[in-house]
Design a protein that fits this description.
heterotrimer, A: mainly alpha, two-stranded antiparallel sheet, 22 helices, B: about 110 residues, mainly alpha, 3 helices, about 0% strand, flat
Amino acid sequence: MSNLHPALVFFAGALLVAMLRGRAQALVALLVPIVSAWSAFQLTAGTEITLSIFDYELMPFRVDRLSLLFNYLFHIAAFLALLFAWEAGDRLQRVSGLLYAGSALLAVFAGDLITLFVAWELLAVTSVFLIWARGTERANRSGMRYLIVQILSGVILLAGAILHLRETGSLAFNEIGIATLGGKLILLALGIKAAFPFLHSWLVDAYPEATPVGTVFLSSFTTKVAVYALARGFAGEPILVIVGGAMAAFPIFFAVIENDLRRVLGYSMINQIGFMVVGVGIGTDLALNGAVAHAFNDVLFKGVLMMSMGAVLYRVGHVNGSDLGGLYKSMPFTTVFCCVGAASISAFPLFSGFVSKSMVVAAVLHEHHIVVWMILLFASAGVFHHAGIKIPFFAFFSHDSGLRVKEAPKSMLFAMGIGAVLCIGIGCFPQFLYARLPWPVDYVPYTGTHVLTQMQILFFSALAFTWLKLTHLYPPELRAVHLDIDWLYRRALPATARGVAMVAERVRLFGAGLALSFVSGLQQAGRHHLGPDGIFGRTWATGSIAVWVAILLVIYLIFEYGA
Amino acid sequence: MMSENRPNEKQYWFDQPKNVKLILRGLYVTCAGLFLADFFYHRHVDEPMEKIFGFYGIYGFVSCVILVLAAKEMRKLLIRKDDYYDSAEDGMPGGNAGGNPGGSKSGGDAP
Amino acid sequence: MIAEHPVIQILIPLLGAPLCVLTGRGVLAYWLALACSLASLFVATRLLATVMATGPIVYELGGWAAPWGIEYRIGPLNSFVLLLVALLGAMVMLAAKKSVESEIPGDRRHFFYAAMLLCQTGLLGITITGDAFNVFVFLEIAALSSYVLIAMGHQRRALYASYQYLIMGTIGSTFILISIGLLYQMTGTLNMADLAARLPAVGDTRTVLVSFAFFMVGVSLKMALFPLHMWLPNAYTYAPSIVSAFLASTATKVAVYVMIRFLFSIYGPAFAFDRIGVSQILGSLALVGIVIMSAAAIFQNNVKRLLAYSSVAQIGYIVLGISFASENGLTGGIVHLFNHGLMKGALFLVVAAVVYRVGSSDLNAFRGLGRAMPVTMFLFVLGGLGMIGVPLTVGFISKWYLILAAIETGHWLAVALVLLSSLLAVIYVWRVVEFAYFQPRDRDSDPVGEAPLSMLVPTAILVLATIVFGINTEWTVGVARAAAVFLLGGHA
């Protein structure tokens, strides 16, 4: 019996790793999740630690079956990512990766909203370095956008938590619901981290810009913490069924045309989270179990896929579908592992995706949500199409690009291999996963109907791909950017700000005064008025300050006599 | 799947068109088999729609074709040059301040 | 001995100042000033401990009983502010030696230390006294000595900045003096407790109303409340770095203290908030100030200036908390007064270290310092996290109470704007981080080393305090809450 918070082990480990160099650094970093797991896997449901801090009763450590499942998952994910980082990692990435994983553990063991908020912000602050570590200008900017969106999510979570406290008198993190304004805000904060439609662009913007190692870390934690929090706080909210359906469907269109293969995986990640969100929204035991089991499996197979693309990026220097092809010749092991990941995400029988995704689909069918069920079937076919076929096909097969590189380093192969073995293991022996699910399980994945229908969908999707490819109807991979919702804040907003600034400038020329310049305070106008030469930023003539003094005095007097 | 002919290089399995054909044939046969399996296996049915013969196969095929064709149309609308976002300011005071803190940056390509 | 503490608090720096001048140009002046500052800190800690343990201390100066004599009255609020001033005075002084040697010519250093001690005397005096006129006297001592200190900046513009500060400061003090004069005219007393007792009877007269208006404008100037802040950015930018660090963390805070004291224990909440509705003016000025000044900070190219604008925005937070006139609001305002003093002191000391090593506080001068001065820059990042209000730092605690108070009183706009300004803070802190960590140093510039230990240690102490008090809030929030309860109870 132990009740040591695993996050503490990770934080302490990060500190130690920061002081080491070379092989010792990589080794200690790899040992951290193992050492932590040794005590964390002995945790038992029911352990609670409470703490009084500024007038409120907090519960920074609460262990139950739901948090335990994610506890196992995050330990495995951290281990695989650090093994993957054995050769390609550096101090910055190992330290921030450990802190990031620790923050995720802090979040899943949080028994109150304030601890959750702290973990929420730590997740943002620690993970951004995995993007910045890439060192390119694009990554720097993308990381900054990522950080702002994540911090915003935290701010909204805090606002929601405070409102929730006012409305219910409790900070405990249990079922929240969307009846109150506080609940709505918390859902919005979770929605940002879970990449709900229209709130998703940070994910596909930032993940592909991170380092090979960074993306493996990133894809394991942030969104899964959000799914965990949704399952705990918003189980059975009907709105989530609709949101999840939309999430499962819309990204696959983007995934088909996207060229950067890690961005394709980003879109497919949103698609997979869609299945989980639908499960949470249905809210029955079967659906919730399906949602969290799928989160578990997604970390593993998405990890394997991200690792295989990371390995390609590491060896080739890019992952553009348009310029790859034929890599199976030089990276045969990576190819095999990638195919295992692809089969798992596509939910082939005997692979892990099958045993969890089918739970969600079955639950939807039980509740007779026909439209959503059809969307999920469509999404299942679509995910096989873009993640199951497109990723391995364009990277490793397709026409030979002439690239001849070395096979991925052994450490990367080991990490992918372990991940792939787990994918197959869970797919073949789902009872090991089912036994650890938080709610009672009464589900048999391998029935004739399940297997047959799934095989029919998958093989006919493959047939569609083949037909489109042979008839050249399939859109070629192009070196191009495809606009997504982030266009709004990367392009439209600055352009509007410039437009407003320009209009304001003209109005000002006509002598209409200062009032509008307040409005235009965004981009240029900001610099214009707030910068060292602007009205609010420059040195004021002493006389004009005196005028302000007089104005304020008059205001006070008017106010007093008016009162 | 063609290969660029490199005289000195070892021939890989997929370099031979007959192997590719073999794979494709395998796919066609499997598909036909799965389609016909509906004759022999009585599927458990929850929804009336599922009763349609070969429902899952047809649904999978049709939805994939629609997916790809729709995405193709979508691309026409959304595609931009590779360096679209790199070409000018990004609208982030924090992100692009580097190197030119002097303040008098021109508005670039305001549309 | 305990009974004599209040006056010792003032006497130490007051007598230290002329001694500094007498010691002449040697290094002795520094050690003397340091000794005085540390002694002053020791006394302030004892005072706070006594007040928290046994309740307010009243000390009659020279044995004359109030209202004829001057009395010092020390409750939870002013002992808290005393500690802030004395703590920052001591930490800044610890760091001062090298920075002053590089920025102030040798023949003026002893004057510099004397002026620093006088400035401390003034600020401590304002805080400790229970007499309205005495407040004015100490205000002038603090102001005059800070004009001198700012004018010692080595750029020529320091002179203009000091001049402007002098004009504005004088207008501010004059307004406060007019206000005190009008109050004296109506009540015949200058003792704060006495004033509070006699004012309600004459509360509706035009004279009292006018005195209130003059006081509010005067004190707003002193604490640089938007839009009367314009003297501040220049003053902080061109002053010697050590002076910036000391004034930024204490001077405006003491002015805020004066406002709290007058609002709650002289005019009284009933008059100021219920009768006049000062909340609306203060609250709206604070909110506009928070947003515009945070945004202005983003666009600055000089780190001192950037921090100065952020200071004006942070004063907005404190005033916002006060304007709610509720227990949580006041607690938030008071605790932020203390917390912000710690953070800003630390950040300005970092800038002082950079100026010492690189010679400039321009953003460009920060290029590559993440590598060249890793410890210094790390301290800046930690302090910056506090400014943003990241959990586990003091900035979070303050914002928590402010937001709580805003929600309780239904000020939704305030909630939104406070949260928005956190995002703005991310950006302006990030700008410095970006230059320090993501921009290389110019190849032809001289190599730069880590800041000297004498500057790092006090900075690290302050940064550590921002984290310790961010995690263990029992003490700071406890004292601030005690002060808030005390003030709302209407006691002096």
